[in-house]
Design brief:
- This protein has helices spanning about 10-60, 60-95, 100-105, 130-140, 145-155, 170-185, 200-215, 230-240, 290-300, 310-320, 340-345, 365-375; strands at about 115-125, 155-165, 185-195, 215-225, 225-230, 245-250, 280-290, 325-330, 350-355.
- With about 375 residues, it is α/β, with parallel strands linked by helices.
- Strands 3-2-1-4-7-6-8 form a 7-stranded mixed beta sheet, with helices on both faces. Strands 5-9 form a two-stranded antiparallel sheet.
- Helix 7 (about 200-215) packs across helix 10.
- It starts with 7 loop residues before the first helix and ends in a 12-residue tail after the last helix.
């Protein structure tokens, strides 16, 4: 600092010399390694491409195996995610105090894994005045007593007559059902006041209650005046086990009836557009099946699901806007003999049979036995189905 001052020209020359020397050194040091790295990368890429080409061309079976395993893993993951979503939603609903039936509230704290496992829960919609109908089913396609319990235990097939209570709980009508249930043990009682115009509410409550009692893969609703082949029903449902959101039935799109006083009158017809319009596609009400995720969706969202005049329309409306696969299964709506009889002889046994003109089997109590003899699959068919 105290020496002789250095001129600006000398400083410039010194800086330039240092820069030149540094550039020369850097070029000498890194030129060879870069060339080596590039060569190495090219060799690696060519090697990987050759390996992939050999694997794809030489082992097609391995490729298909990997693809199959990938699809299986995706399906398994999808089911796991659906189950977790359902448990989370149920927990939230329980914390928020959802308005469920007493049976649902009593079991709302249960984990879904603690429920009784089943393949399918079949709810037979019935009324106080339908004892003869129920007996006609017990005498034909519906197993009784020990057979019913065995079917539930060994095959995971749960079957119950579904009914609520009268407007005067504890009265004659309710006592009669209690006595019938004590004898047959095949009822599911709902916290619901029975009435023809309350079928949408009853359907909503049936699925909510069934989900709270059984952890099943499918939930089915049938009427008590149709003929059902249990083996064919279970075989049909088993084809869709990998589908998390499935809605199966005979899909239709009937007219929206705006005239008062007619059967199936729709008071909210204006919501479906101009007069003469048709409903959206939905399963006919005699029989339909839904997967576990959809039944859980009904249970979780029960307080805010709108009810139309017709029960089958209400159910279909609950799935509008959801990622749901509709399956139009025509074997669920065969006619009565000779229709179902001809199909059975041809090897196409029907799942369900009824008369469209009566929205069920006309005079079902008198005809159920003959229809069962003509169109039934055989009493042992359901036991031979592999699940």
């Amino acid at each position: 600092m105290r020496g002789k001052p250095v001129s600006g020209k000398s400083i410039f020359v010194l800086c330039f010399a240092s820069f030149f020397a540094g550039s020369l050194f850097t070029s000498q040091t890194w030129n060879h390694p870069n060339s080596h790295n590039k060569d190495h990368q090219l060799v690696s890429i060519n090697h990987d491409q050759q390996n992939n080409r050999n694997w794809l061309e030489g082992k097609p079976a391995d490729v298909m195996g990997v693809v199959a395993k990938t699809h299986q893993a995706i399906r398994s993951l999808d089911k796991t995610i659906s189950t977790l979503e359902m448990e989370l939603a149920a927990a939230r609903t329980s914390q928020n105090g959802g308005q469920f039936s007493r049976q649902i509230r009593a079991s709302s704290t249960k984990s879904i894994h603690s429920l009784q496992k089943a393949f399918v829960v079949i709810g037979i919609n019935t009324a106080f005045s339908s004892k003869k109908r129920r007996d006609s089913l017990r005498q034909t396609w519906l197993p009784e007593g020990a057979k019913l319990k065995k079917l539930e235990k060994e095959k995971g097939i749960v079957i119950r007559f579904v009914i609520g209570h009268s407007a005067t709980p504890g009265g004659v009508l309710d006592n009669a059902i209690d006595e019938e249930n004590a004898e047959h043990k095949d009822f599911l009682r709902l916290d619901h006041v029975e009435g023809y115009h309350e079928l949408s509410t009853k359907t909503r409550l049936y699925f909510s209650t069934a989900v709270s009692l059984w952890d099943a893969e499918f939930y089915v609703k049938v009427d008590d005046d149709i003929h059902l082949n249990l083996g064919m029903l279970v075989s049909t449902l088993s084809q869709y086990r990998s589908k998390p959101r499935i809605y199966i039935g005979c899909m239709k799109s009937g007219p929206v009836l705006s005239q008062k006083g007619v059967k199936y009158h729709e008071p909210e017809y204006w919501k479906f557009g101009e007069e003469g319009n048709k409903y959206f596609r939905h399963a006919t009400g005699q029989i339909y099946a839904i997967s576990k995720d959809l039944a859980a969706y009904i249970s979780i969202n029960s307080p805010i699901l709108h009810r139309y005049a017709n029960e089958d329309v209400s159910l279909g409306s609950w799935f509008i806007g959801l990622e749901v696969e509709h399956v139009d299964e025509r074997s669920m709506c065969c006619g009565t003999p000779p229709d179902c009889e001809w199909k059975a002889r041809a090897g196409n046994v029907c799942v369900a049979s009824f008369d469209w003109s009566c929205s069920g089997i006309c005079k079902s109590v008198d005809r159920m036995r003959n229809i069962h003899n003509s169109c039934g699959e055989g009493d042992g068919a359901v036991w031979n189905v592999e699940l």
